[in-house]
Amino acid sequence: xxxxxxxxxxxxxxxxxxxxxxxxxxxxxxxxxxxxxxxxxxxxxxxxxxxxxxxxxxxxxxxxxxxxxxxxxxxxxxxxxxxxxxxxxxxxxxxxxxxxxxxxxxxxxxxxxxxxxxxxxxxxxxxxxxxxxxxxxxxxxxxxxxxxxxxxxxxxxxxxxxx
Length: 163
Ligand SMILES: [Zn+2]
Known about the structure:
seven-stranded antiparallel β-sheet; single chain; globular; disordered C terminus; alpha+beta; 9 strands; binds zinc ion
């Protein structure tokens, strides 16, 4: 694995059917079927955090863990950076066509921004280019991006995208 570094990430979660979930202090929330994009930061180690999200057995600690209990993680984009980019990523993604925030305050207990979870209303492939554009437009520039999906045992199997 090498040494872990700080960064922010987009975690893509597919939900096959609608579910109602209790999300910590946010209470019961309805989640329509679709692909969700969760924006997070892990300044104490990005790979370890994303690997944790991809592991099948985990205690609910973050809001996103409740969604992961029902949905399938289908991919992740990692941006290595010292800056905490999660709020900005969520804000910029929310302006994309076919993407909207879902559940006000999701994942945003500490920052109080409108929320870190987005629902993609069309196949995520349709907005892949736009998402890449958001990442490319980050002010400090993404230092490195990786994408891919976890193995069944939760280990990372990311394919590097050289920039
Ligand atoms: Zn935020």
